[in-house]
TrEMBL record:
Residues 52-311 form the Sulfotransferase domain. The lineage of its organism: Eukaryota, Viridiplantae, Streptophyta, Embryophyta, Tracheophyta. The keyword Transferase applies. It comes from Dovyalis caffra. Belongs to the sulfotransferase 1 family. This is Sulfotransferase.
Length: 314
């Protein structure tokens, strides 16, 4: 399908569940999607041909995508301050199935700074590896996957949804937790998403770099250094240590969230939300302020069941 099909095509043919308010999620290839992203997703699979030099940032929503977009752009281009001051990270590095392919005519790659970079084109995606594998594997492009502990991811997601003007009623946290535990969340199940990239990073470490929000927050410098090495762009020349310090500083939550462009109440074109909504607290462990014991226990139980047998810990 040239345009990825219409919403109606998916609406009438896929398993569907109520998610938040009146919004439903559609199950497609084992994962849950908002209807509006399915045509664009199909277009990515049909038309996107990565180059071996491309870098693709993959993430489950609310796990640090915005931060990693800023970091990747800065590391690859070795100069970031001016670009970051004047462009929201999402306008520097577009998300394939949301910003570039949206089910209509694909957006021009060249309208995003990172997609016509002489160093390497950078794209982002929330698509699970299980769905994207046939698109990315043949090109040998590099992928960077960021993940975050499930409880902070869920709270960040829940807060993000509460800010959205498209939902009129508040979304009870108990409901959000139940849906999350049963896998029902856009691009979920979260656990399958993480494990898809985790396993691929073990199998192809030269191609897939796996990092957690928490380790990056704890010690950004060594991890950004490692990331640069993975990208074939190490910080080992004269004066490079200062450049690394500058990049880590410019991409910190405190700095990044205070640039005017990131404080803007202007709405993004591709989501009904202000640019500022991608920055909230940027803390590790914020879930403790929201989840009661019962909620904590139900998430911990599913985390043990899904992750611990695979050798991945949270
Ligand atoms: P919180 O809601 O917990 O504050 P995503 O970019 O994947 O949508 O994730 C958003 C989360 O990352 C939000 O978490 C946001 O505040 C946090 N974030 C954004 N920029 C960050 C940065 N530079 N450093 C650390 N966290 C950041």
């Amino acid at each position: 399908m040239e345009n990825g099909g219409s919403n109606e095509d998916y609406d009438s043919s896929l398993p569907v569940e109520k998610w938040c308010g009146d919004e439903k999620l559609y199950q497609w290839k084992g994962f849950w999607f908002r209807l509006q992203y399915l045509p664009g997703t199909q277009q990515v699979l049909d038309h996107f041909k990565p180059l071996p030099t491309d870098v693709i940032l993959a993430s489950f929503p609310k796990t640090g995508t915005t931060w990693l977009k800023a970091l990747l752009y800065s590391v690859i281009n070795r100069s970031s301050r001016d670009s970051l001051k004047t462009n929201h990270p999402h306008m520097l590095v577009p998300t394939l199935e949301i910003q570039l392919y949206d089910g209509t005519q694909p957006q021009s790659f060249s309208s995003f700074a990172s997609t016509n970079s002489p160093a390497a084109r950078i794209f982002a995606t929330h698509l699970p590896y299980q769905i994207l594998a046939d698109t990315v594997k043949p090109s040998d492009c590099r992928m960077v996957y960021v993940t975050r502990n499930p409880k902070d991811t869920l709270i960040s997601f829940w807060q993000f949804v509460l800010k959205s003007t498209s939902y009129e009623d508040p979304w009870p946290l108990e409901v959000a937790v139940k849906k999350f535990c049963s896998g029902l969340i856009p691009f979920g199940p979260y656990y399958d998403h993480v494990l898809g990239y985790w396993r691929e990073s073990l199998e192809r470490p030269e191609q897939v770099f796996f990092i957690t929000y928490e380790e990056l927050k704890d010690e950004p410098k060594p991890h950004v250094k490692r990331l640069a090495e993975f990208l074939g762009n190490p910080f080992n020349g004269d004066g490079e240590e200062e450049v690394l310090d500058e990049i880590v500083g410019n991409c910190s939550f405190e700095k990044l969230s205070n640039y005017e462009v990131n404080k803007s109440s202007e709405h993004t074109q591709w989501m009904n939300l202000p640019f500022s909504s991608f920055f909230r607290k940027g803390d590790v462990g914020d879930h403790i302020n929201y989840l009661n014991n019962e909620m904590l226990e139900s998430i911990d139980a599913i985390t043990r069941e899904k992750f611990h047998g695979s050798g991945f810990m949270y």
